[in-house]
Amino acid sequence: MRYLGQRLITLLPTLFAVLTLAFVLVRIVPGDPALIILGDQATPDAIARFHVQTGLDRPIWQQYLAFLSQLVHGDLGVSMISKRPVLTAMLEVLPYTLELSLAGVLVGVALGVPLGVVAARSNGGPVDWLVRILTLGGLSFPAFVSAVMMLLFFSVWLGWFPVISAGRPLSDPWGRFMSLALPALNLGLVMMAYVARVTRGGMMNTLRADYIRTARAKGVPRRRIVWKHALRNVLLAVVTFTGLYFSVLIGNSVLTEIVFNRPGLGKLVIGALERRDYTLLQGLVVAYAVLVVLVNALTDLCYKFVDPRVKAS
What we know:
By secondary structure, the chain is mostly helical. Helices cover 79% and strands 0% of the residues. It is built from 13 helices and no strands. The chain has helices spanning 2-27, 33-38, 44-54, 60-72, 86-121, 126-140, 143-157, 173-206, 210-217, 222-259, 265-275, 278-306, 308-312. The protein is elongated.
């Protein structure tokens, strides 16, 4: 826990920079939220009252200080549209986004690592070429394109999965699994392609190392050499990539949630952008930034369990 706390402290400047950038970007988005919320027929007096109520009439630096003060006290403000606390709105759908993102990571790692190992063992062979073609296909399709194709094929034509993957209650575990399976597979396939390539490259370099040749000379079974000795050294690169890719995965989850009509932070982001809900949009950016920072800290923590040299240092 001490190590994790130290890593979080070192990441605070990055988090502060991201939050400042988010505050600025939200306010340079074209369009006055008062006109979008109140309508084109709103009178100048109504627009002025709205600006006063939401604090938009104050100078930008005062708005920024108020934003930071609210964050320090754990207050993300109130939505300009629904008048609900932003934190409450996010907590209602955050479990669905986390569920989808974690499931996508599990699918990507569970498929990508074995494929990368098998491809490295068959370097230049038919299996290696097949894996490289599969990963190239995974890298070539954007997340929203593969989501539409999977939705049409598995849900509309075959009828294996529900067309609308709305969130199911915990009391319906099978229905929840079926609504999650296809979106998670869509996210996981993209990640699988990257993980397989990282694993393949790392395994090919590791299998040429001196200690691997020594193990072979001593008669250590090949399967043990590959899956116990070589793969352990490659896992550090896989863990690093997984942590770095998590931010991309969250971005892809936004599109996936929209295509599969799942509840989550992604749908809130789109709604806040369309209606220029500054407060809600700021809160969502804060949530995404905190998630990415926490994942990066947990990734550093995983190094201690994957690489003994990190423990020693």
